[in-house]
Each structure stands twice: as structure tokens, then as C-alpha cells.
Design a protein that fits this description.
The chain has 202 residues and is of the alpha/beta class. The chain has a single domain, classed as Ribonuclease H-like superfamily/Ribonuclease H (Nucleotidyltransferase, domain 5, 2-Layer Sandwich). The protein is built from 7 helices and 8 strands. Strands 7-6-3-4-5-8 form a 6-stranded mixed beta sheet, with helices on both faces. A two-stranded antiparallel sheet has the order 1-2. It is globular.
Length: 202
């Protein structure tokens, strides 16, 4: 079964996250900022709150470089993460959303970055394309860049992250303001309510 056919089947079953990918996710000039619950079951496509973006908003993506925007979400009862990858011309090519152990917002953000790297490798992305990961957590970015700051309790997770970065080769991790990371935030919040990780690429 093709990826798009699998996406279609998820949409027919009312899967909210996959509808995001299927209906609006391929548009480089749109950003998903929410879901109107009152019309979700009647018309999933119409329920999506979409903000039209000027294409120059993605100008900070370097030429010849793919860009993964990620986020983590944590509340008192659940945690999740999510992210999506734009290719060098701004089109969404990968998306993931799923639950994680509830160890706080920083851990959820860390798992979002590790999962982005794992999915990037699994999708077989060309190794001649550099990867830029954008996170809205200054704390996580400092932990990744300075080994001495990393919490020992998550050492195995950081070791996996380092191994994946070495495997990919060219990876840059940078900060993005939360106000520009709304779609990844939505995927993270949806992921906290999921049972299993959803991931897809096309």
C-alpha cells in the first residue's frame, strides 16, 4: 500500500494528525495553528485553522538543506512530541507525532529531536542534503552543544542522539521562536493523546 493510500485510510478513520498532513501538510505557504472541534467530525478539512504564511518566512532554510521543525509537549498527565520536515524548496516531506514518557517538557523536546533524526535516517533521505533541526527550547540546544550540561539520567538518550548525528553527518540544531513553531507544537500536543507513534514520508 502506498504512503498516500495509507494516509487516505487514516483520514477516513478520523485520524486528526494524519488529516493535517493529508489536507494541508504539503503546502509550503500554510501553517496549521489549531483545530475547530465543533466541525471536526463533520468535515475534517474545514476544521483546520490555517494561517497563510509568506514564503519568505522560510528563507532561513539554507539552500540545499532540509529543515526539521520539532516540539515537545508535557502536562500533568501526559506528554508527546511531533515534528515535520520541509525540503529545500519548503514543501513538507516528513511528519511524525507520538506519545512519550512524561518526564517533563525538556525530555519531550529531546525525544522530538531524536525521533526526527531517526525518521530522517529511516526515510532514506539523500546524504548529500544537509539537515537543520529547529527547536524552541534554549535548554535542549545548550545540552546538545555542551556535553557537560547534559543530565546524567538521560545519558543513553543523548548517546543515541550523538550516534544519529554522526551517522547523518551534517546536522545543525538551532533555535526558532515559539511563535514560528505552531505546527510542530500542534503535532506535539496531538501526539500526547496518541497511543502509538505516527510517522510518514512521501
Amino acid at each position: 500500500m502506498s504512503v498516500m493510500r495509507r494516509l487516505e485510510s487514516f483520514v477516513l478513520k478520523g485520524d486528526r494528525v494524519v488529516t493535517l498532513a493529508f489536507v494541508y501538510g504539503l503546502k509550503a505557504d500554510s501553517a496549521l495553528t489549531g483545530i475547530d472541534e465543533s466541525v471536526w467530525w463533520l468535515d475534517p478539512a474545514s476544521s483546520l485553522v490555517v494561517e497563510q504564511k509568506n514564503c519568505t518566512d522560510y528563507a532561513h532554510a539554507l539552500a540545499g538543506q532540509a529543515q526539521f521543525l520539532v516540539d515537545g509537549s508535557s502536562s500533568a498527565s501526559k506528554a508527546g512530541f511531533g515534528g515535520f520536515l520541509r525540503d529545500e524548496v519548503g514543501n513538507i516531506r516528513i511528519m511524525f507525532s507520538g506519545p512519550t514518557e512524561n518526564c517533563g517538557a525538556e525530555y519531550a523536546e529531546l525525544m522530538a529531536i531524536v525521533t526526527a533524526l531517526e525518521v530522517f535516517v529511516e526515510a532514506g533521505w539523500p546524504n548529500n542534503i544537509g539537515l537543520s533541526i529547529l527547536s524552541d527550547s534554549h535548554v535542549i540546544i545548550r545540552w546538545i552543544s555542551d556535553i557537560s550540561l547534559r543530565p546524567w539520567r538521560w545519558w543513553k538518550t543523548f548517546r543515541k542522539l550523538d550516534d544519529l548525528i554522526s551517522m547523518i553527518g551534517s546536522v545543525q540544531i538551532s533555535y526558532i521562536p515559539r511563535s514560528e513553531n505552531k505546527m510542530a507544537d500542534l503535532l506535539a500536543r496531538e501526539g500526547a493523546s496518541r497511543v502509538n507513534l505516527f510517522k510518514a514520508w512521501w
